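Could you help me review a protein record that somebody else here produced? What it holds is a sequence and that sequence's fold in token form. I have pasted the whole thing underneath without changing anything:
=====
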Amino acid sequence: MDKFITKYLTISLASMPAFILTIPHGASISSICIFLFSFIVLIAHYPIDMALSKKEKILICSLLLLPIVIIFDVILRDLRFHYLDYYTRFILVILVFFALRTIKVSLAPLMIGILFGAVGAGVLALYQKYYLNLHDIHGYAMQINFGNISILLGMMSLAGLFMVNSVAYKKSFYIITILAFVMGIAGSLLSGTRGGWVAIPFFIGLFIIFFPFSRAYKIIGSVSLILALILVYFSNDYVQSRVNSVYKNTHIYYNSSTIDSLNSAGRRLVEWKAGWLMFTEHPIFGIGSGEYKQALQEKIAAGEVKKIDLVGHAHNEALQIMVITGIIGLFAYLSLYAGVTYFFYSSLVRSHITRVKYLSFLGVMIVGAFFIFGLTNYSFVHNMMILFFAVMVAVLAGMISRVERESIEA
């Protein structure tokens, strides 16, 4: 029975990166499977060892703090309970962490899932672009989310080279890894989601600092990637227009007052200004979850910001948290990123176990990428985004803790 549960939990781990962009509702289906098998594992191995290390305690506290703030915000202000929905994911994934901390699972399915997800994202983007002739490439998700996760999966695929000395067919693994990397990048470029492209310097920096190759290889690889991106920019009119439009739209924002002249960059500037005004008026506790749209309408009516279509959030995660829950919420939000980063970074720099370094590298990559994605989007208001972040953090952290515990006991 134990082998059966372990086997299917291990397989289910591949489904999150593999299915999130390639099938409808892939993140939800994957999460249900992972939660279900994790729950069964915890029941089968009851009582669970609750002796936690310092970094494990910090990780769990960081996952709990923001949901607790949102819970109090909803209850004390008598708001609708559906505002709690997405943030409860951070609480539920703690079960996944403990399940993977308890049993030993194979790393191979997760690696295969990442490669499959990146290739699938690229293929789906190419299919929609050149076969269906769609202008907005989005797969089975919102366009921004598709592009952000696609580039992240591509980079996560490249990180698989950490494990190249642990696989049987090294040349084949190199080829598949590079292919998955290219396809993930292609999916992002075809989607035109510029917010994800801002994370590229972060990815390059991570690989230069932590990748277990010689400095020459890392520099050559980074320069090659930069040159390839420059080539794509000058050879692809769509990518070039998306990048250039940032400057054009910002210029329009400062020189026009009509809604028709404002594109995505200009609209975000309006939303950010409005959000900041809301925060300065309610700096401690914010205005409450779900109140941004009404507050934006009031700011427009008062002439404090330019007129735009009404939206439900500020398209900046930290600012949105500040608007709805004030300084208290911002502290909880930053604590989430700081606590999770501490867990992965400490394992990355201290461990000499290749498997731990690989999983930790993925963790730092995901946390840093999502923080950057949050600069221009409110990722945690989208089901697939918060599920991917929360589940992957719990999966990687649980697997790391298991390996580290085994090394201490050995």
